[in-house]
Amino acid sequence: MKGKILVTGGTGFIGSHTTVELQNAGYEVVIIDNLSNSNREVLDGIEHITGIRPVFVEGDCANIDTLRQLFKENPGINGIIDFAASKAVGESVHKPILYYRNNLNILLNLLDLMPEFGVKGFVFSSSCTVYGEPDVNPITEDAPIKKATSPYGETKQVSEDIIHDVIVSGSPIKAIILRYFNPIGAHPSGEIGELPNGVPQNLVPYLTQTAIGIRKELSIFGDDYPTPDGSCIRDFINIVDLAKAHVKALERMLDDKSDSNLEYFNIGTGEGLSVLQLLHAFESATGVKVPHRIVGRREGDIVKIWADPTKANTVLGWKAEVSIADTMRSAWNWQKKLRERGIM
């Protein structure tokens, strides 16, 4: 084994796919998740894909005693990938206290315990929302950090500041901050994918649930933005591509290849796609029409943003590879598998 890695929020969408890629790369994985937005059956999917069932701890990372016990019972953890956070932009506008309390307490607990248990590397799940509404696209890591447009985005900005300050203070850890753009799709095996509890807050699971008849119609939040078709533009990245970026980041730190103790990378495709273009891409790739209607703008949404991934391509040696058509087919395949299993 290359090392033992703690994946917080590891039964979630990004966490589960990253666990697969870590295990495929030869790492031993310990997952902690409170199952607030996921379910333990995800562990079956991970095992079916990799042949390995990761160690699983059901617990809340916002509780430092729970985390300390995890480290005691699983000695030798030398890296953490942190996905444990509330993550819906729209929900954060209406539940700001929940987002600040949860997201920041989790981060503080992890950073506090790392030196105590000799954990060397920390990969943080950040977001392109830290850039606010950018002046130019595509956006590089050197772009100014603007006032966030939502409490969710604000927690990512504050978290990045906290990590910076901890590193500067002389804490014996290294950190890489990955600023995601918009992860979508599912594992090509159909064994794992995005399955939020309750009504989806993210676009693609709501789209596929509408396509299969669970939801009446998909709401498109605004068609009057200053974009070619009036809908918001995002950089939609395949979930497996995104997961592989975490393995690259972890290897860079644990192999002492990083230039400094703190680095930042944009993780995106480098192409902007509007919400309506994504909808049409799904329909074209699958042959399934999706009932939809235009509704008013959603508070907290950025008009348009997409990545310049040059730094990740050249420094991390990572590149997005899966096409939008294949990504849409994987999302639809996952939704159909859920129906076959009687889950949804």
Number of helices: 11
Shape: globular
CATH superfamily placement of the largest domain: NAD(P)-binding Rossmann-like Domain
Any idea of the CATH class of the largest domain?
Alpha Beta
Helical residue percent?
25-40%
Overall pLDDT score: 95
SSE-based structural type: alpha/beta
Tell me the number of strands.
13
Kindly report the CATH topology of the largest domain: Rossmann fold
Explain what the structure shows:
This protein is an alpha/beta fold and 344 residues long. The protein folds into 2 domains: 4-185 and 237-267, Rossmann fold (3-Layer(aba) Sandwich), CATH 3.40.50; 203-234 and 270-340, UDP-galactose 4-epimerase, domain 1 (Alpha-Beta Complex). 39% of the residues lie in helices and 17% in strands. The protein contains 11 helices and 13 strands. Strands 3-2-1-4-5-6-11 form a 7-stranded parallel beta sheet, with helices on both faces. Helix 1 (13-24) runs parallel beside helix 2 and helix 9 packs across helix 11. The two termini are 37 Å apart.
